């Protein structure tokens, strides 16, 4: 990993917003899921939550793997997802095209916040609406009844980013160091990381220059030939 790339990844991770997330309820079209995850990365969301029922599991699940930088947590039900988000003291906002929904610009996103988005055709479930703290809507005055879900997500997330930037929330790092190290290892040493995963070997720490810090015993666990090790940046061994 070059020093420039290493520094860039560290800078990206430093601005991750641990207490801002989205929950996708049966959003399953791959291009929509990918577009939303991409926006999440762009505004600094670290983890996305998903709920897919049996009908939607395959398509949504497939698209999710496309983004390396955003973690995902799948839940079996919207109730389970809401419980997990509430356990993190998040306010749950549900995008719902109802008469009682408030304008999405009138909400405080500097609080720990999860935003629920619904299925492409039917929107969010009644259960999701019941579990949420607040319905929000992007006002529309045209003939069509709704926006594309990834467009709706981008608009709301950029309002959240705007408020959080003003509040200085991008100035303080919140991602735990352990999580940073994992992402740095995955990004900088993808082949080694795959081997570790396959063999159940713990990821090694990464130093401030992006180098692996591991004992000889750690390298020996990998059980690969010296030639392969060389190809895998064996010169990074320290200690
Ligand atoms: C195409 S819409 C679903 C429309 C569905 N008929 C309904 O009534 O919810 C898919 C998702 O996009 C988001 N969305 C679309 N337009 C929106 C708007 N104007 N305000 C807030 N969210 C919107 C919501 O998450 C919604 O569940």
UniProtKB/TrEMBL annotation:
Known catalytic reactions: guanosine(18) in tRNA + S-adenosyl-L-methionine = 2'-O-methylguanosine(18) in tRNA + S-adenosyl-L-homocysteine + H(+)
Gene Ontology MF term list: tRNA (guanine(18)-2'-O)-methyltransferase activity; tRNA binding
Transmembrane segments annotated in the record for this chain: none
Location of the RNA methyltransferase SpoU/TrmH type C-terminal domain: 162-214
tRNA/rRNA methyltransferase SpoU type domain span: 20-158
Main EC class the enzyme belongs to: transferase
One Pfam match: SpoU_methylase
InterPro entries for this protein: Alpha/beta_knot_MTases (IPR029028), rRNA_MeTrfase_SpoU_C (IPR022724), SpoU_MeTrfase (IPR001537), TrmH (IPR033671), tRNA_m1G_MTases_N (IPR029026)
Binding positions (S-adenosyl-L-methionine): 95, 138, 147
Keywords assigned by UniProt, alphabetized: Methyltransferase, RNA-binding, S-adenosyl-L-methionine, Transferase, tRNA processing, tRNA-binding
Tree of life domain: Bacteria
Biological processes annotated in GO: tRNA guanine ribose methylation
Protein role: Catalyzes the 2'-O methylation of guanosine at position 18 in tRNA.
PANTHER family: RRNA METHYLASE-LIKE, TRNA_RRNA METHYLTRANSFERASE SPOU TYPE DOMAIN-CONTAINING PROTEIN
Name of the protein described by the UniProt record: tRNA (guanosine(18)-2'-O)-methyltransferase
Species per Swiss-Prot/TrEMBL record: Alteromonas halophila
Species lineage: Bacteria, Pseudomonadati, Pseudomonadota, Gammaproteobacteria, Alteromonadales
């Amino acid at each position: 990993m070059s020093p420039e790339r290493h520094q860039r990844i560290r800078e990206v991770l430093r601005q991750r917003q641990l207490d801002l997330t989205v929950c996708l309820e049966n959003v399953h079209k791959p291009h929509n899921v990918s577009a939303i995850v991409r926006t999440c990365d762009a505004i600094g969301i670290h983890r996305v939550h998903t709920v897919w029922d049996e009908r939607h599991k395959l398509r949504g699940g497939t698209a999710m793997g496309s983004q390396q930088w955003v973690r995902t947590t799948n839940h079996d039900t919207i109730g389970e997802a809401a419980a997990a988000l509430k356990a993190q003291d998040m306010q749950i906002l549900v995008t719902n095209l109802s008469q009682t929904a408030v304008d999405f610009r009138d909400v405080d996103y500097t609080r720990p916040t999860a935003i629920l988005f619904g299925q492409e055709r039917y929107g969010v479930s009644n259960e999701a609406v019941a579990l949420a703290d607040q319905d929000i809507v992007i006002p529309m005055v045209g003939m069509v009844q709704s926006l594309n879900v990834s467009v709706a997500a981008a608009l709301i997330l950029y309002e959240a980013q705007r408020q959080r930037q003003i509040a200085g929330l991008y100035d303080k790092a919140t991602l735990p160091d352990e999580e940073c190290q994992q992402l740095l290892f995955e990004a900088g040493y993808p082949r080694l990381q795959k081997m570790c995963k396959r063999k159940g070997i713990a990821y090694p720490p990464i130093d401030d220059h992006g180098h692996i810090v591991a004992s000889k015993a750690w390298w020996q666990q990998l059980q690969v030939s010296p030639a392969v090790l060389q190809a895998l940046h064996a010169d990074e061994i320290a200690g």
